[in-house]
Design brief:
alpha+beta; Glycosyltransferase; two-stranded antiparallel sheet; 41% helix; globular
């Protein structure tokens, strides 16, 4: 039986002694309780908006539930598999039910169409067949594999471990290099490999590390040096980034791989994401003269829905067209990098803009200046919020994923060592 987020919060209220004398409202949630409320709501999405027989998670759904769409994304499924681990650890549902869902998901993935172990970006959640004429995606397969490998380490279940290992080992990583030193972004049966490559710093770190660490069909460790790492200085902050990509590039690989207190020949990437998050906040505040809603307690723009459809927007530098919208997963996915500031923003969104909070937590985006509120939630945006909330609370995803020997071996092969300077936490 699924535990209701409302029941969980009621229990927490009793534990805190209820309302104080003179207060008419409920007691203020602690930061941990607030993040738990967010995680419980998001878990409902990954449980309800997935096929109970195939385990494939919808790419997006109506924020109010009752969604009839059947298109899944393998990235949403990867986040969903990790969400199931968190839910099991937190006791959000009976462990036996969660294990059954994970087993069904991995079993179906083993039957799904793939090319050299890489999966189509979008598939029908019930049949597993390709949707939208989408590409066989290198990065989305990597996100899926991160979820699969988290399950392998968390669940003490031999069937899950065996299926997870089989799925990981069936990926022919060198095939996706297509004769080059960097990964192609994908492949289609109609046109072959996409010309675009993962050759510039972005969410790509998990893709390269998974491939380097694989014990079957790995790529050379030297591939870690093949992608460029552009440097940007913004308002006195200097960091590695991608000049044409939104904030989420500094979040996704960090959801699973633990870069804290580690550095390679180029950077301490955890501290780099802290700096990138600070720069993004300053960027949003610099727009306050245009968009009066942006403030210290309301900022954050990353790839999301908008009134004009899905947009990859943010900055710095400006990736537009920005219109005053706020995207909760921008701060949700940055929780370990600027925890105090990001929690303050999320608290403000929930209290000041009640229409932004629906059945599965925060809607994907909203615009306080125009009164537009998205009717949808997006699986990957909910996912990064849930995983980073849990990492901020307990480091559970980091600790579990890094039990995979392939992940440790990959970081060692890529040249990671203990950092000379400690990561700056809870800013």
């Amino acid at each position: 039986m699924l535990f209701s987020p409302l029941l969980g919060l009621a229990a927490m209220g009793k534990a805190c002694g209820g309302s104080q004398p003179g207060n008419t409202g409920p007691p203020q949630l602690t930061d941990d309780q607030f993040l738990d409320e967010i995680e419980r709501a998001i878990f409902l999405y990954f449980w309800e908006q997935a096929s109970p027989t195939t385990g494939q998670v919808k790419d997006h759904a109506l924020a109010a539930g009752n969604d009839a769409s059947t298109v899944s994304s393998i990235a949403a499924t990867g986040f969903g598999l990790t969400a199931l681990c968190i839910a099991d650890q937190r006791g959000y549902m009976a462990s036996s039910d969660i294990v059954t869902r994970v087993q069904a998901t991995l079993s179906f993935l083993l039957q799904m169409t793939n090319e050299n172990g890489f999966f189509y970006h979008f598939v029908d959640m019930n049949t597993g067949q390709r949707a939208y004429d989408s590409e066989v995606s290198s990065i989305d397969t990597a996100i899926l594999m991160c979820g699969i490998l988290t399950c392998r380490q968390h669940f003490q279940d031999q069937q899950i471990a065996d299926m997870a290992t089989q799925l990981y080992q069936q990926v022919n990583w060198p095939w996706m290099l297509n004769g080059g030193t960097t990964f192609s972004q994908g492949w289609t049966p109609e046109s072959g490999f996409l010309t675009a490559r993962w050759d510039t710093y972005s969410e790509l770190m998990m893709l390269y590390l998974l491939a380097i660490g694989s014990t079957v069909n790995p790529i050379p460790a030297s591939s870690w040096n093949a992608f460029s790492r552009p440097v940007l200085t913004y308002q006195g902050l200097t960091y590695i980034t991608n000049l044409t990509a939104p904030l989420f590039i500094h979040q996704y690989s960090h959801a699973w791989f633990d870069f804290r207190n580690k550095q390679d020949a180029y950077a301490n990437y955890f501290n780099n994401s802290i700096t990138a998050t600070k720069a993004h906040m300053l960027f949003c505040l610099s727009l306050a003269s245009q968009f009066s809603d942006y403030s210290n307690s309301l900022w954050g723009i990353t790839s999301s829905d908008s009134v004009n459809g899905y947009v990859a927007w943010g900055g710095p530098p400006l990736i537009g067209p920005i219109d005053g919208s706020v995207v909760p997963c921008a701060t949700g996915g940055s929780l370990p990098f600027m925890s105090a500031g990001c929690i303050a923003v999320l608290r403000n969104i929930k209290s000041a803009f009640p229409n932004s909070w629906q059945m599965y937590g925060f809607i994907d985006a909203f615009n306080p200046l125009t009164g537009w509120y998205d009717v949808d939630v997006v699986g990957i945006n909910l996912g990064i919020t849930m995983l980073m909330a849990e990492n901020q609370r307990s480091a559970f995803v980091w600790n579990t994923f890094m039990m995979n020997p392939e992940a440790v071996a990959a970081m060692t092969a890529a040249g990671f060592q203990q950092s000379q300077t400690r990561s700056m936490l809870s800013l």
